[in-house]
Amino acid sequence: MTTTDAARPLPAQPTNPDELHTWLKDALDLHIPRTPVLLGNSAPFDYLSFVFFGHAPTQDPQPTQPLTDCVVWANRGGGKTFLGAVATLLDLLFRPTIEIRILAGSLDQSRRMHAHLRDFFDPRQHEALAALVDGKITDRRLSLTNGSSVELLAQSQTSVRGTRVQKLRCDEVDLFDPDVWDAAQLTTRSKLCGDHYVQGSVECLSTMHIPHGVMHRLIKECHESKRALFRWGVVDVLAHCGDEHQCRATEMSSSRCSAALDHREDPKTGHLGGTCPLLPECKGLAKSSRTPGHITITDAITQKRRVSLAVWESEMLCLRPRRTHAVLPEFDPRRHVIDHEGPPPHMIREWAVGMDFGFKAPTAIIWCAITHENVIYAMDERVQAEVILDDHIRAIRDGLARDAIPAWPPPAFLAPDPAGFQPNIETGNRPNLILQHHGYPVRISRALILEGLNLVRARLAPATGEAPRLYVHARCKTLIESLEKYHYDPKRPEDPNPVKDGNDHAVDALRYLIQAMDKPSKTEVGSYYP
Description:
Blueprint: H1 3-7, H2 17-28, H3 44-53, E1 70-74, H4 80-94, E2 99-104, H5 107-120, H6 127-130, E3 141-143, E4 149-153, H7 157-161, E5 167-171, H8 178-184, E6 191-193, E7 196-198, E8 201-206, H9 214-223, E9 228-232, H10 279-282, H11 297-306, H12 309-316, H13 333-336, E10 337-338, E11 348-356, E12 363-371, E13 376-384, H14 389-397, E14 413-416, H15 431-437, E15 442-444, H16 449-460, E16 470-473, H17 477-485, H18 505-518, E17 522-524
Parallel strand pairs: 1-8, 1-9, 2-4, 2-5, 5-8, 10-16, 11-14, 13-16
Antiparallel strand pairs: 3-4, 6-7, 11-12, 12-13, 15-17
């Protein structure tokens, strides 16, 4: 920004999205993309418009009340922290006496947003903005002469619980301590700020790092219309793609993204056939007429070359959380989760049940259909703690029938924990003998945990590249969550044993069934007693 720009007075307060977009361009020389590149994504400007005007997207066509909280799920380097600073600037300027707090996964992350704010109020950048500062800008606080203020919070219970403000802006929430996050939900209060009534709200800006972490929970709440969701990936913030980059080595006149491929190496990209590495995501749309983003094509290509596909899809495309320490990274809900009624009856060879015992920890029962081709469909589950074995046996006898779900066919066999032949340390009973005495065939195949997990992996992703031989119905919510969250200890990479933090029970029940199917096993039948 030039000296002349710095001395220019601020434009009038914007009253609609078009005026806001113009205000950002004229006052701050910011050109924020208004149109997403990928269908179904948001544009970064959508978030700023929501913050300023409160126009919230919702999954519910007739929401009971306007949404005030929002979630920004965007890629690394996608401008989340910077846009959070811009949103804070707008609030400070046009909502007199508003109080804002910035809380991030670390104090360093909070300081990055604060650093952007300080740059905006630097007199060398804009004298009119600098003239509005009340006192000195400190490392943790900024106040304006209209009574508005913003302050950084440390991520601690003490810091969060003492807060009562209109807006809490949270950066990189997937790195939050869950207890601090829960406490942060009670920090806001509504207030009349000038002539604008500001609803107390919590804003969250983050990539998604952790399977079923804080961000995963927030995205679910967005789908339940509890929070507004704004999601974009690297493609939505790409700079304009000029003639120096081509989708193909030889582009056909009828299309910038011809499906034709040759086998020559493109001197510009160094790729066989001249295919741009971003073509699968971009499909040439970065060449379209739109407000360009801030990530250059060259930088995006370089970043993609440096990382694995899993990291790229998680951190840059915002498709799913990373599975770095996952025990079963082969599990992909898009591929393995079904919402239809499973295989038709004529394709089913038999039904079977996997079972992991517990009392204080939950007992997990997984009800499966097995086809003549030996494909397993996990169709239902029962996962409950502090319930005696007799109650679980009654549930099995009833086919897990409950409201809206009729009874499943009787199982041909049960595949419980092999340790169930030993006395349970909590009850003293031998669960497998009790199952036998109730007339259920018990099929056991003993295997080490690693061996059993390898059998699960082989069904999820056969080495031959064929279709999976294991599917899970969407109603098995605990099993799906456990398959995603089951992980090794990142602090002990040499330890081959998964962490037993509650995500093992449903997976173990499924593992016992797969072991009984795919390894030599022994079926034992006892006599029934009432």
